[in-house]
Amino acid sequence: MQQYLAISFEEATMSTEQTPSFSDIAINQLLTQQYQLSGQLKSLMGYCDQNLLLTTESNAQYIVKIANSAEPKLELDMQNAAMAHLTAEQCAVPHALSNINGETITPITNAEQQTFYLRVLTFIPGKFYAEADSLTHNESLWSNLGQFVAKIDLALAGFQHPGAFRYLDWDLAQGYRVCMSKKHLLHADQAPLVEKFLTLYQTQTMPVLAQLPQGVIHNDANDYNLLVNDVTAPTRITGLIDFGDMVHSHIVNELAVACAYALMGEKSTQDGVLNAFKTIVAGYHQVRPLSDSELEVLYSLVALRLCTTVCNSALAISQQPDNKYLLVSVKPAWALLEQLSALSPFAVLCQLRQACQLPLDSGKAPADIIRYRKQHLGKTLSLSYQEPLKMVRGQGAYLFTEQGVPYLDMVNNVCHVGHCHPKVVAAGQAQLAKLNTNTRYLHDNIVNYTDKLLATMPEKLSVCMLVNSGSEANELAFRLARCFTKSKELLVVDGAYHGNTNACIEASPYKFDGPGGEGAPPYVHKVTLPDPYRGEFQGTGSKTAELYANSVKATLAKLAQAGKKPSAFICESLQGVAGQIIMPDGYLAMVYEQIRAAGGVCIADEVQVGFGRVGSHMWAFETQNVVPDIVTLGKPIGNGHPMAAVITTQEIADAFVTGMEYFNTFGGNPVSCAIGMAVLDVIEQEQLQAHALTTGAYFTEQLRLLQQHFELIGDVRGLGLFIGVELVEDRISKQPATDKTSWLVEFFKQHHILLSTEGPFYNILKIKPPLAFNKCDADKFIKVLKLGLMELSA
Q: Which has the least CB within 10 A, 259, 293, 544, 575?
C-alpha cells in the first residue's frame, strides 16, 4: 500500500526538532486503552508527524497520527471539525474517531514527559494522483478535479473555526510577503522569472484582493493529497487527505493551489498545460461559479504558488545543501513557471472565460466608438486600418483585442520597454498612492530621476527640464535657442516632423508641406533631406554627407546675406516620418560645425529614437559622433505615460533666465519621475540596449535575405530596432510601390501583426517595436512578410 507514504516538499522543509517517536508497542497500548483498537502497525513517511497505518484483525484500516509537539491543539481541533463537517456533507475525506471519552484528540506523553496529540482517522482507499503517469491524465480527470475541489469549497462555505484564523507561510494571501523575504536566496539566473510574477501580482492582483470572497479552505490539494480511482487510466478524484494546511483565506486560492500542483505534473507542451488549466477551471466553475475578479487573478495566483515553492526551496537548500531531494522536487515548479511566463495573462483570462462559457467583457461595440469619435472627438482624429481594431490590453510586444486575440506590435515605439511592463506599472501605482504634486515643493524623485537621466548624456549636457510631451519639449527647445542666440531663424530638414503645437507644426515640413499645410513661415528654412537611398546623392559615406551638408551651408549663406544668423538647427537623430532614414556618416558633425560657426545651436530630436533603440548607443545622435547643444526626449521616456524632457548645457539654460518665470504644472511631478526612473532601471536591468543591437542585427539580416529573393524590396535600412523596408516597383527607377505597401499592411493585420507605413510616398514599412520584441517575433514577421511578398509576386 503506497498511500500516505510520500512527503511533499512543504513537509520536507519543516522543522524536525519535536517529531514524536513512540514505539509500536506503546502506540498499540494507547489505541487499546483509548479507542479499543489493536492490530498491525506500519510506519508511513512523515517529516514532522509520526504517521502509521493500523490494520486490525478484521482487515479494517485506520491512519494513526501523532502530531509534532509544536502543533497547536486548536489547529488540530480545526482539522477534525472540518473533516467531520465535510464527511457530513458527503465529501470523500477522512474523519477523526472519538476516544473512550468522546474526544477526537488524545493527549499523550513520552518518557521525557513531552506532550503530544494522538488522533485516529478513517482510511480512504485509493491511489495518489501523483502515481498516475502524466501521459494518462485526460480531460475527464482534469474536469473532475475541478469539480471535486469546488465541492469541497462549497461544503466548507458554512464552516468556521477559530483555528483557521492563523498565519501560514503556505497561505497564498501571504505568498507575496514570503517570496519577497526569500527571493534573494534564488540563483541569479532564476530570480528575474520570480521577480516578473511578483511584480505582476503586485500590480494586477493586489488591487483586486478586497473583491475576492473569503472562507476556510483545505489549501493543499496537491498530487499526494488527492486520490484517484485508477493509476492506469484515471478519470476521477476519489478522496482528499491531509488537512494540515487549512486556513481562512481567499477561496479562489484553493483552486490556484490545485491547479499549480496538477499543472506541475503535466509533461506536455505549453498548449497542453493551458488545456489542462482551462479544463480544471471550467470543471470548478460548473460547481462553484467563479466571479469575474476570481478569474482575473487566477493565473497570477497559480504563478505565486509556484514562486512560493521555489523561494521556500531556496531557503531549504541553503540550510541543507546536500539534500538532493530538495533540488529534484522543485524542478517541475521552475519548468511550469517558464511555461506560464510564455503566456499572456490576458489571453489566458479570455480562454478561461470561454472555457467557463462566460461572455468576454468587450465593452462598447467598435462601430459605436467610431461613431462617437466622429461626432464628439473631432473628425481629424485618425484611426489605423480599413476596419479599426479595438485594443484592451497590452503585454510586452503584443496588444490584445477584447476577444483576447494577440497582435504583434511592430510600430509602437512609445511603450519602449514593453506594453504595461509590470515594474513600470508598479512604480507608477506606488507613487500615485503616496503623492503627486507640482515642482514648487521639494521631492526626491525629480532629483533622483534627472540625475540618472543626465548620467546617460555627454558631460556638457547637464541641465534637465521636464515637460509632458515631445511636442512640448521641442517647443521649449526653440525658446531656449532664441533666448541664447537672440534669433528666431530655424533650420529644419525636409520631411521632418517635430510635434503638434503651433511652433512644432511650423517647424515640421511633413505638416506644413502636407495636406492642409500653409507652407513654411518666413523664419523657417528647409534643408535637403540626407536620404542615402532615394535622395539626390547616393551612399552612406562622408562624401555623400558633405554633399548634403552643403544645403545647410547654402542656407546659412543666404541668412548671412540678409543680415541674420540662425537660432537653431533641429534634426531627428534618425529620420522617422521622412522614411526611417539613416543619415550618411558624418552628416551631423559637418552640419553642427557650420551651425555653431554661424552662431546657432544644434538640437537633436530623440523623441522617437532614443533610450537605446539603436542598440550600439543609448542615444541615436551618438551614432553620428556628435554632442548636441539641446536634446529633446519624449515617447519612450515614460513607456506610454505622458512625460518628456529637454536636456541642455548650463550656458543655454542660464540664458533662459530672463526674469520670466518658467513653470510647468505637471512636468517633473513625482509620479512621472518614478515612472521615468523605472523605465531607465528596466533598460539597464534587462539589458535592452544590447538586446536591441543583437535582435535588430538578426532581424535586419533576415530582411536582407528576403530582399535577395523579392525585387519588390528596394532597400532595407536601420540601426538596432529602428528599421525601414522600402518597397519599389522597379529597383532602377525606384518607383514607389505605394499600393502594394498599403496592401501588405492590411495583410499583416490579417495575420495578427500591427504594421504601418512611412515616407512621402507611404511605401516604407515602419518597424519600431517595443524593445520586448525578440527573435521569435522577428521570425513570425519574416514568415508573414514572405507569404505576402509571394502573393504579390503571384
A: 293
C-alpha cell at 106: 488524545
- CA distances, 287 to each of 73, 171, 503, 515 (Å): 33, 23, 63, 61
For 324-341, b/e burial (b = at least 16 CB within 10 A) is: eebeebbebbbbbbebbe
Comparing C-alpha atoms, which of 267, 276, 333 is closest to residue 306? 333
> What does DSSP say about strands 490-493 and 764-767: parallel, antiparallel, or unpaired?
unpaired
Q: What is the pLDDT of residues 2-23, one digit of tens each?
A: 333 344 444 444 444 578 999 9
CA separation for the pair 657, 82 (Å, rounded): 75
Three-state DSSP state, 238: strand
What integer pLDDT is reported at residue 4 of this predicted model? Answer: 39
pLDDT, tens digit, for every residue of 433-474?
Answer: 999 999 999 999 999 999 999 999 999 999 999 999 999 999
Q: How many CB atoms lie within 10 A of CB 436?
A: 15
Cα separation, 602 vs 550, whole angstroms: 16
Are the C-beta atoms of 205 and 297 separated by less than 8 Å?
yes
Determine the Cα–Cα distance for residues 477 and 646; give it in Å rounded to an integer: 7
Please give the grid coordinates belonging to residue 319: 540550510
In single-letter form, the type of residue at position 49 comes to: D
* Cell reading at 84: 467531520
Q: Of 94, 119, 121, whose CA–CA distance to 105 is shortest?
A: 119
**Which amino acid is located at 189 in the chain?**
D
How far is it, in rounded angstroms, from Cα 765 to Cα 757? 5
| Cell 543666404 sits on residue | 558
Contact by Cβ (8 Å): 623, 696: no
- C-alpha distances (whole Å) from 119 to each of 38, 91, 164, 247, 759 are 14, 20, 19, 20, 80
Query: 93 versus 271: which is more confidently predicted?
Result: 93
> What is the maximum alpha-carbon separation in the chain?
117
Angle subtended at Cα 496 by Cα 759 and Cα 450, rounded to the nearest 5 degrees: 120
Amino acid at 601: V
The H or E element containing residue 217 is strand 214-217
Confidence of residue 319 (pLDDT cuts 50, 70, 90): confident
Ramachandran bin of 773, using left for φ above 0, alpha for ψ from -120 to 50, beta for the remaining angles: beta
Count of Cβ atoms closer than 10 Å to residue 206 Cβ? 14
What's the Cα-to-Cα distance from 499 to each of 389, 572, 643, 653, 723, rounded to whole Å? 25, 12, 14, 22, 21
Q: Determine how many CB atoms are found less than 10 A away from the CB of residue 369.
A: 15
Task: Please say whether the dihedral angle defined by the alpha carbons of residues 549, 550, 555 and 558, taken in this order, is positive or negative.
Answer: positive
DSSP per residue over 84-133, as a string?
HHHHHTT-S---BPP-TTS-S-EEEE-TT--EEEEEEEE----EEGGGS-
- Is the distance from CB of 424 to CB of 417 less than 8 angstroms? yes
Whether residue 521 contacts residue 502, with contact meaning beta carbons closer than 8 Å, is answered with no
Q: Read out DSSP for 431-473?
A: HHTT----TTS--HHHHHHHHHHHTTS-TT--EEEEESSHHHH
**In three state form, how does the secondary structure of 621-679 look?**
HHHHCCCCCEEEECHHHHCCCCCEEEEECHHHHHHCCCCCCCCCCCCCCHHHHHHHHHH
- Mean pLDDT, the chain, rounded, equals 94
Tell me how far CA of residue 719 lies from CA of 99, 414, 415, 708, 730, in angstroms. 79, 17, 18, 20, 25
- Looking at residue 44, what DSSP letter applies? E
Per-residue H/E/C for 298-325: HHHHHHHHHHHHHHHHHHHHHHCCCCHH
Q: What digits encode the pLDDT tens for the residues 261-306? A: 999 977 667 788 999 999 999 999 999 999 999 999 999 999 999 9
pLDDT at position 111: 86
Residue 326 binned pLDDT confidence (cut-offs 50, 70, 90):
low
Rounded Cα distance between 304 and 575, Å, is 44
